[in-house]
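Hi L.,

As promised, TauD/TfdA dioxygenase family protein:
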Amino acid sequence: MSLTVEPAKPRIGGIIRVDKNHLLDDETIETVRRELEQRGVLVFPELNASDELQLAFTDRLGDRVNFTRKVPGSDSETPDVYKITLDRKLNTEPDYVLGTFFWHVDGITIDQPLPKATVLSARKLSASGGATEFANLYAAYDLLPEAEKRELENLRVIHTVEAAVRPVHGTPSAERIERYRNLAAVMEQPLVWTHEDGRKSLLLGTHADGIVGMPGAHGRALLTRLQQWAAQPDLVYTHNWTEGDLVIWNNQGVMHRVVPYTDEGRIMHRTTIAGKEKPGHVASDQELERIYQMA
């Protein structure tokens, strides 16, 4: 079997070349596990995996999880495969897809262990836009000055679906908020996540809506600055898709976003690997209300 791994950038990303008939081999799976921890994002160029092969690959790497079963586009043809698309025939509520134009971590507003990894394959591409950007949250923490690390160490962050889609709709209506709350939770997560293996990463994204114990403006300003820090060019890998590409990333240490597109024909198939670590918990109503009230 021929299997090669090439770095995409020094601090993030790797390109794995292997015949798809060997995607499920022990050597491939062990290589993926090892490189995913070090590189954060791995690309299999033009692999052209079927849903069945993608699910089998997902299952070889861990337990399968589906946290979007209630969202249009999930399980539409194959169980546990979510079709990411703006096609109105498949997705009658595009909020969640439009929200992916902004930095995020998958599943962060769900009351369960944070998904370990996301697998995405390109089935149909848009004529323009549609590249996916990945930012290394481990490296973003490691490169902070030691004094700033100490200042951030014990801060807690409120994450909401409302914040994630606020750039899409502005302030959501009460009806929209009620719908979002039925699909997700308001979660309190650490700003600095100490993982079970001892490594530390920032935990950021547009869904971060405030910092516990800080006035709203102060907390959001800090979160914005840290998000910009984590998205500095040396820590970001941009993947320009080719049809058939398969990409997997460490969802516990990488945030991502898609370059905006309007083409309703673009279709990506997503599967998800369950995590075992649950860094946060459901936020109290009082803390959420306090953050919204404090200017």
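DSSP finds nine helices and 16 strands in the chain.

Thanks again for sending the construct details.

K.
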